[in-house]
Amino acid sequence: xxxxxxxxxxxxxxxHPSVRALVERRVVxxxxxxxxxxxxRVTAVPGIVxxxxxxxxxxxxxxxxxxxxxxxxxxxxxxxxxxxxxxxxEALHESPGATTDAVVSHVTIGVCSxxxxxxxxxxxxxxxxxxxxxxxx
Amino acid sequence: xxxxxxxxxxxxxxxSQSGEADEYGNDVPSATVVETxxxxxxxxxxxxxxxxxxxxxxxxxxxxxxxxxRTGDSVAVDGLAYELVGDPWHARNPRTHSxxxxxxxxxxxxxxxxxxxx
Lengths: 137, 118
What we know:
The structure holds two protein chains of two kinds. By secondary structure, chain A is of the alpha+beta class. Chain A has helices at about 5-15, 15-25, 75-95, and strands spanning about 25-30, 40-50, 60-70, 105-115, 125-135. The radius of gyration of chain A is 15 Å and the shape is elongated.
């Protein structure tokens, strides 16, 4: 069975000390009901791609997006979201070999963009990190 | 009196954080049910473009003053579930200087077999 990348990577980030120090367990796959504190939302965007050289459906490249949100303090929002995105990037960079839920063989960080979320009023500070994570069960 | 007109039995399903998380880290909400009354009036009906017969309706719901209602709640009326859209309005009567009722916008999306009378 190919691994559930969103669940595995989310769990890894929740347990990583640098990320946990900023958001505790708020690494989730949907916007939490309480949005006053920072959180990270993990989404398979553009998605999971079986590795081209894999003869069986075994090795995948998980293209994931990490929306790193600040809390509701507008004055410190950008710094908060920026720090969270950098902690996520560093944690992802350290992930090869670091989780037992799957074998992560390689991580490529894509981009880190500052895109405040206009669904909030005022727009909530957010940095979006993308990464390609090669893994198999 | 307004309270005489609010005579439709309904249930408010209050979703709150349980502290338990699913495998994706999301809180698995717990639900409590509060019995009350309301008045429900349809405001808009439509079908999204596409090949599915999906109903999308919006409603005005009026509850008694003091009703505790939040955007994360849902409301059940005659066995059909409606989701709250946005925070409700505790309507204050400027003449009496007191809240006279609570208004909320509800939305229900359903297939044709899930609709009224089915």
